[in-house]
Structures are given as C-alpha cells and as structure tokens.
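Hi all, posting the design record for the shared folder.

TITLE: backbone redesign
STEP: 1 of 1
STRUCTURE INPUT:
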C-alpha cells in the first residue's frame, strides 16, 4: 500500500487465492472496522487497549412459556422496556437491558477482570459450563430477581472483551483516510460508534464536494473537523465505562452508588457526551 500525495497504489490478495491484484486510484477510504488492516499498515506498532473489564452478553427469545413469564416480569419492573435502554448499576459493575424486534430480550453485564486470552484478535469468547454457572450464581447475588432470572435462562451467553484505542494524532496519510471504527475504535458506553461513523462519512463527502478540484484540501478539512470531536468522544466513553465499573473510585472496582451525590449521578448522563446536543 502506498498513499503518496498524488495517488494510491494498492496490492491485494483475495482470500482463497494466490493471485495478487493491483489497483491505483486518487483516494483510499479505509472503513474496515476496529481491527482495520489499513490502520495496522500505517501504524504497525500500535495496539488496542483493554478497558479492564468484559461483558457477559445474551439474547433470550421470549416466545417460550418461560420466556413469556420472564418478559412479563421484566416489563412490570421496567415499564418502558421496548422504548429505551435500561442501565442498572451495582458495586463495581453495571448491566444494560433492552428489547429487540420480535420481543427478544438483550442483556449485557460488565464485569471487571484481567484481559482474557482471545484468538486471532477476536473480541468474543465462548464461555465454558463452569464459567456460565458462576456467572448465573453471581447474577442472583448482584441483580434484582427478574434480571437475574433472565441471565439464568438465556441459552449460550458469551463473553465480549471491551477494547478501545488511544485517539490518533491524524486521520489522513497522503491519499489514505481513516473513517469510522478504523479511525476511532471506542468502548460502547457512549452509544455513539455508529453515529460517529455516519458523521465521518457525511463530513468527508461534504468536504470532497466543497473542494472538488483540491482533494488534499478536502482531506485536510475532514481531519480538522472530525479529529478533535471523535477524540473527545472516545475519551468520554472510556470515562463513562470507568465510572460505572468503579474504576475511578479510591478503591478501584467499588463505588458507593447508594450514597452517591447528585453531582456523581449527573456524570452518568449521555447528554454529557461532547457535541451531543449538536448531533441529535
């Protein structure tokens, strides 16, 4: 890959072949996700950052008799389930609950733990029976009975390790430009990853239209507009995760939420996300 000022030269080998294909163009837009190979080519020594916790995740199809019972119980306690996301905070942990299309119940439980061993850069791992049993027993101890019951009956819950990366100093290398998760992999707590990617595309498209005869100036404008915003949003999402997981407390992993001050609770609000009010 060569992203000189005037053009981009790219060599690729399609999966399952030994053939090398060569391409040349004016611009390469790298939108290849949080494990971007383009970014790795540009920054070969950069590594992703483990956030200090994993998420247990699962989805329950509530069409069965037991599923319908659990769904009904949850709707009694979470009256707007199906219309919003619910966040439950415990000591050094938090959980997310929301309803998907078709009445499926999606839940996430963030647990502080050492970084797990993952294969080939993956972010998920299959959980063993003993791990699942321990998680389910812990759920009964930590969460309200209805939420714990959901976690206990959901088939095949799995582990999702949470990563982000340090904000970059640039998004453009000659005629190569990073967008979306390739540019700013972020933890999920800010709920902005998709929005960030859409805005990257919109701003880049507007800049290219505006500077149609000067592509380098268009890329410069894109970088100047998006780099400061996305960097702040990555760091704020990291802050939210650390706050909810008790990692900012005097004793990391513990936070006395029952005794929290109003100012502590205000820090949890999504509207504190930088530029949030300008993006909705």
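Okay, here is what came back for every position:
SEQUENCE:
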């Amino acid at each position: 890959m060569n992203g000189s000022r005037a053009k981009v030269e790219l060599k690729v080998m399609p999966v399952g072949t030994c053939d090398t294909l060569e391409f040349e163009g004016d611009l390469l837009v790298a939108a290849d996700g949080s494990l971007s190979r383009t970014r790795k080519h540009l920054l070969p020594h950069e590594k992703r950052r483990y956030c200090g916790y994993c998420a247990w995740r699962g989805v329950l199809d509530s069409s069965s008799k037991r599923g319908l019972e659990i769904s009904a119980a949850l709707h009694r306690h979470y009256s707007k389930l199906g219309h919003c996301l619910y966040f439950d905070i415990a000591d050094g942990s938090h959980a997310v609950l929301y309803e998907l299309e078709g009445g499926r119940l999606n839940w996430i439980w963030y647990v502080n733990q050492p970084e797990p061993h993952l294969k080939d850069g993956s972010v998920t791992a299959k959980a063993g029976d003993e791990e699942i049993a321990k998680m389910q027993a812990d759920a009964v101890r930590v969460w309200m009975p209805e939420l714990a019951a959901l976690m206990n009956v959901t088939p095949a819950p799995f582990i999702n390790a949470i990563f982000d990366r340090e904000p970059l100093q640039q998004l453009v290398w000659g005629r190569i430009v990073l967008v979306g998760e390739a540019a700013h992999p972020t933890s999920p707590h800010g709920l902005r990853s998709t929005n960030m990617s859409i805005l990257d595309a919109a701003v880049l498209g507007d800049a290219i239209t505006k500077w149609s005869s000067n592509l380098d100036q268009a890329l410069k404008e894109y970088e100047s507009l998006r780099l400061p915003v996305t960097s702040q949003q990555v760091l704020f999402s990291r802050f939210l995760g650390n706050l909810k997981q008790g990692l900012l407390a005097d004793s990391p992993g513990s936070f006395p939420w029952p005794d929290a001050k109003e100012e502590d609770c205000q820090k949890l609000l999504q509207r504190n996300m930088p530029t949030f009010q300008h993006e909705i």
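COMMENT: DSSP finds eight helices and twelve strands in the chain.
Let me know if anyone wants the other runs.
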